[in-house]
């Protein structure tokens, strides 16, 4: 009886993952006949006819929601965010300059032309080091803590309510993770923007960070933290909740084969597609705050009021938006593709899937 009660308490809500070794209903009588421990428990107090049990752990496999699992998710987040943001440094550089100086950088094409003429090809990758380090740290916290908080809030809600209100679980888990992730990102983001938008300020991180601290003070590195939260928290909430929802809908309505029967390449394709669509939504939601972050980190002593006055409300929502949609859509799709590829590489299931109906359980007889 103790075994049965503990099994029920340790259940993970079924919506979190659909795996080839997903939980199934087993007939208790069959299990009892073949297991001395269960046979003893049954003879002492009886048992329900059916109940759910966790999937067995396979030797050499990473157990779901174990410390090794969260460590793997953290490494996957580091890779997917750091590498993708570094790869789109040229787009990010043009976007930031369009936000800061729209007179000089009037469009995407002219922006690339101006940068190429003034700084050469090497200029397109200015600020890549703080970009790589900052977004690697952010990705580690974002994905690692998202998996942790998603499980944590699911446990608080219980299986029934966690499945019923899964969107709220996604939103709460991603917001909690991003609060931590932005603290890790903020210093590198401040240096990156200054290096990219002020030619001659510094060559990169090695001389840019000391110069920034000397000019603004150590706390100046966090001057843009609140606007960064304003940009990244809605962005991440949209990123994770929309991705999980889109992937679920793809498996439910667009793909006739159950997820666990799909090839890994197809599952990774779904991850990329879901990530790309989610990225477009993320860019639109977070763009005004992105303009604020660029403006505040570019000018010493600048305030949010100065940014709104300078950019105007329309400019705050639209300046640099088309380029950011392309950049964030591609980046987010690539991130989910890399993240799930790493999870598959270490033996974990890809993220998201069709939500199974909650399994009914019959109370055990005492």
Automatic annotation (TrEMBL):
Highest taxon, organism lineage: Eukaryota
Localisation per UniProt entry: Mitochondrion inner membrane
SUPFAM superfamilies associated with the record: Mitochondrial carrier (SSF103506)
Membrane-topology annotation of the record: Multi-pass membrane protein
Similarity remark: Belongs to the mitochondrial carrier (TC 2.A.29) family.
Function noted in UniProt: Transport of phosphate groups from the cytosol to the mitochondrial matrix. Mediates salt stress tolerance through an ATP-dependent pathway and via modulation of the gibberellin metabolism.
Protein name in the entry: Mitochondrial phosphate carrier protein 3, mitochondrial
Organism: Vitis vinifera (Grape)
Taxonomic lineage: Eukaryota, Viridiplantae, Streptophyta, Embryophyta, Tracheophyta
